[in-house]
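Researcher: Structure for this, please.
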Amino acid sequence: MKIAFYSPLKSPNHPVPSGDRLMARLLMAALVKAGHQVEIASELRAFLPDASADAIETRAAAMAAERARISALWRERGAPDLWFCYHPYYKAPDLIGPALARKFGLGYVTAEASYSARRNQGLWADMQQQVLDAVKQASVNICLTRRDFDGLAAAGPEARLALLPPFIDPALLLETQPHPQHGRLVTVAMMRSGDKMDSYVMLADALLRLTHLPWQLSVVGDGPRAADVRALFAGFDADRIVWHGEKSATEIADLLSGSSLYVWPGCGEAYGLAYLEAQAAGLPVIAQEIAGVPEVVVQGKTGLLTPPGDVDAYAQAIGRLLTDDGERQALAGAARSFAVEERSLERAAVRLSAILDEYIKAGTT
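Model: Predicted structure, token format:
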């Protein structure tokens, strides 16, 4: 099929790296691997950090103009077979695809759509309704986590839903054989307010309880809260923390392959592709059993998951694997197998193809 791909939160071509951008690119790659022709339909962002009548009106006008532009283009060159929208949610609904799909008689698909009733307040309620209307219209809504699946099922019982577990392309991570250095911890995360900052706070607090053990933490990432993150770790000896800043994918792969544990609490993580990347590099993960993290880390098999908000338990889990290399090695092997064999781009392409065959080619539009 010819597929028009759209990500209202952040285009796959956006200059700032993030999990959203990576997942959009991975979905496009999986669609191509499944034999489809994929083209980004629009670069226009629908994201609004705050709801105001003026901002919503300005966005609506921009979206109307974009719909008109795409309509004219399709009339001239021919329409695609399918509109594929990645990650519509209340701050970034798809305000382009549903109308075009109806107008041109296209299949309409969402991936990682999310709906939370607690967001039905003020002007956000209208955004929520737009997301829900699109979900109900969709030929199928592809959910990456059971949490999103259950949320959509509760909000729109008539919606068509399918599960596609989060996945990565492990090729780069497989180029280097793991060579873990004892006590080398690593984390890869942006430095921004909200859940990321909360995770850095928790990580620093946990490591303060482990200064009696030999370890060194490599931190990969940058962002607007970089100075605040560094301040959290100011009380450690200078050689305990290595600040790497933003690194390329190849450089991150090298750092992961030489580390022994991936530590990131994961406050509020939708799921966290970085966890899968770490496991593909042969690293056990230590995170909280929270939000979508259990979708990508198997407790007791590929890592250790601790109760949400329990800093003592989190510190104890790190200490446990720092002092028991036999268990660490067993988790490391299982983690690499899990990420490479069960959560690869190839497996995702097969699953994605099956979903589209069932819901699109069968005529459910």
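Researcher: Any notable elements?
Model: The longest helix spans residues 53-77. Residues 170 and 299 are 21 Å apart (CA to CA).
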